[in-house]
């Protein structure tokens, strides 16, 4: 991975193209009638992000494996409800709308032709790629995602924030430590402990029965972190209710493995890529062909006009 200086923007790409797919009418089609609403919607997203935030570096982070085996081995229910097809020897297939799946390769080809760095690493989710780039960045980082799990990376001292789309990408919630403390009562690292304690049905994380978000926040405020909470379970003088003590004690097997599942990796072997925001297309001929074949129209032209600005 090359040195990254200046403002780095990291896209949780699947999160954004899912939002584009559901936010842009499926009537937006290529000349052959194939829906391209996710493709054009994502290009519009990127155009708006570059205009509004002017990153020096931009990386489209991809899910090379959206349900890594090492996470499933620790918590078998992890994202299990989203599996469409299981594969014993490789990544499972996620349940994705029929008209979205064919658009993903088009998105990848367009990003490559424009020259926007696109990074996915076998055995890891996009979150882990984002975590690794964030850990190695020397300047401020904007993480663009509709996944609250990445709140755990927020760090005011390093200028790391999450830009969370509230409505499309036109309205972004800039989440820093103050926003996290106001809404959840925790800082960035504390959000990971909060998430694993309360659980997350959307990711198949069971959490600790009877410990909801507010209770988890109170416990973290009282005892600092998960390790502090579990030390309190073993301390008869600690201020825990009998039911809290019992539930946390019974959840030890889950709590022993959940941190590794919930916390994003920071040591993914990301490839050596040029992350600098391109000023002109890397492959103009390929891009022209893609634009004509898929009818990318104004969405692509607006982005190309924004890049050199």
What's the topology here?
Blueprint: E1 8-12, H1 13-23, H2 37-53, E2 57-61, H3 69-74, E3 83-85, E4 93-94, H4 103-114, E5 117-119, H5 126-136, E6 141-144, E7 160-167, E8 171-175, H6 177-184, H7 188-198, H8 213-223, H9 226-233, H10 242-250, H11 252-262, H12 284-294, H13 297-306
Parallel strand pairs: 1-2, 1-6, 2-5, 6-7
Antiparallel strand pairs: 3-4, 7-8
Tell me about this structure:
By secondary structure, the protein is an alpha/beta fold. Helix content is 44%, strand content 11%. It contains 13 helices and eight strands. Strand 7 (160-167) and strand 8 form a beta hairpin.
Defining key terms:
globular; 44% helix; 6-stranded mixed β-sheet; 11% strand; 309 residues; 13 helices; alpha/beta
Count of individual beta strands: 8
% residues in beta strands? 5-15%
The H/E string reads EHHEHEEHEHEEEHHHHHHHH
Calculate Rg over CA atoms: 21 Å
Which segments are poorly predicted (pLDDT under 50) over 5 or more consecutive residues?
none
* Largest pleated sheet: 6 strands, mixed
Helix/strand/pairing class, anyone?
A: alpha/beta
Mean pLDDT: 93
Distance between the termini: 27 Å
Structural shape: globular
Helix content: 40-55%
Give the neighbour order of strands across the main sheet. Answer: 5-2-1-6-7-8
Enumerate how many helices there are, as a single number: 13
């Amino acid at each position: 991975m090359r040195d990254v200086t200046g403002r780095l923007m990291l896209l949780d790409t699947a999160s954004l193209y899912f939002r584009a797919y559901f936010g842009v009418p499926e009537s937006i089609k290529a000349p052959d009638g194939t829906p391209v609403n996710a493709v054009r919607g994502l290009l519009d997203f990127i155009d708006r992000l570059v205009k509004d935030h002017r990153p020096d570096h931009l990386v489209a982070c991809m899910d090379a494996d959206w349900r890594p085996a090492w996470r499933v081995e620790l918590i078998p229910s992890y994202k299990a409800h989203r599996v469409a097809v299981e594969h014993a020897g490789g990544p499972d297939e996620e349940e994705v709308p029929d008209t979205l799946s064919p658009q993903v390769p088009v998105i990848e080809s367009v990003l490559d032709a424009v020259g926007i760095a696109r990074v996915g690493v076998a055995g890891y989710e996009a979150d882990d790629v984002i975590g690794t780039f964030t850990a190695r960045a020397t300047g401020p980082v904007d993480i663009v995602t509709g996944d609250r799990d990445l709140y755990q990376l927020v760090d005011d001292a390093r200028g790391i924030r999450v830009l969370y789309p509230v409505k499309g990408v036109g309205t972004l919630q800039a989440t820093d430590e103050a926003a996290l403390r106001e809404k959840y009562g925790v800082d960035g690292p504390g959000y990971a402990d909060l998430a694993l304690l309360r659980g997350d049905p959307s990711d198949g994380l069971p959490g600790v029965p009877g410990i909801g978000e507010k209770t988890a926040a109170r416990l973290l405020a009282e005892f600092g972190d998960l390790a502090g909470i579990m030390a309190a379970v073993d301390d008869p003088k600690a201020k825990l209710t009998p039911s809290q003590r019992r539930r946390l004690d019974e959840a030890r097997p889950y709590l022993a493995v959940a941190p590794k599942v919930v916390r994003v990796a920071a040591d993914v072997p990301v490839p050596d890529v040029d992350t600098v925001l391109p000023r002109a297309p890397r492959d103009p001929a390929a891009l022209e062909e893609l634009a004509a074949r898929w009818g990318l129209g104004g969405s692509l032209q607006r982005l190309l006009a924004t890049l050199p600005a």
